[in-house]
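Section 5: illustrative case.
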């Protein structure tokens, strides 16, 4: 049996277009180690190479690539300080659950790689949501994704904190305050 790896890697997740990447940039600006969203990296690579491992055409392949990238982020996160990631292994597994494509082997990664207990979810926020070349789904699809994630994180033993809809500097303060109070 593989021993679980625990790191103070804090997950920023939630609704697509809810401000995760902007918050991640603010935390990096404040000196924290950060890791970008695996899904966007996979989509960019597939668009650049003409590949088809995309959420709409190959959801299982896409999620597996996201998990692999999230594992790399996890393994590169410092063990002795808090760092932050935009999405996680749990996000990819929730996506697979939605497509009825999870397996015991994939779910086992949640026991092997354990993030910090506190997870921060960006709620749906229509006023800042924007579709782009990498985020092609609708706001309604993003809300459904958020609702799945709000169930998935507690299911896997994480404490989900809903981020308030406030300016990014205040959001970063909120995250850091919650982590100080742990």
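Designed sequence:
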């Amino acid at each position: 049996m593989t021993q679980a790896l625990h790191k103070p890697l804090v997950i920023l997740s939630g609704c697509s277009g809810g401000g995760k990447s902007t918050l991640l940039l603010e935390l990096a600006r404040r000196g924290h180690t950060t890791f970008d969203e695996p899904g966007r990296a996979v989509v960019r690579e597939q668009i650049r190479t003409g590949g088809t491992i995309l959420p709409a055409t190959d959801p299982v392949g896409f999620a597996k690539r996201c998990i692999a990238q999230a594992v790399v982020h996890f393994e590169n996160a410092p063990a002795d300080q808090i760092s932050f990631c935009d999405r996680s292994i749990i996000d990819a597994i929730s996506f697979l659950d939605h497509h009825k494509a999870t397996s015991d082997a994939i779910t086992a990664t949640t026991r092997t790689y354990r993030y910090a207990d506190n997870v921060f979810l960006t709620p749906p926020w229509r006023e800042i949501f924007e579709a782009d070349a990498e985020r092609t789904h609708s706001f309604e699809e993003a809300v459904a994704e958020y609702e799945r994630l709000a169930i998935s994180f507690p299911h896997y033993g994480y404490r989900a904190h809903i981020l308030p809809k406030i300016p990014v500097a205040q959001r970063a303060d909120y995250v850091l305050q919650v982590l100080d109070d742990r």
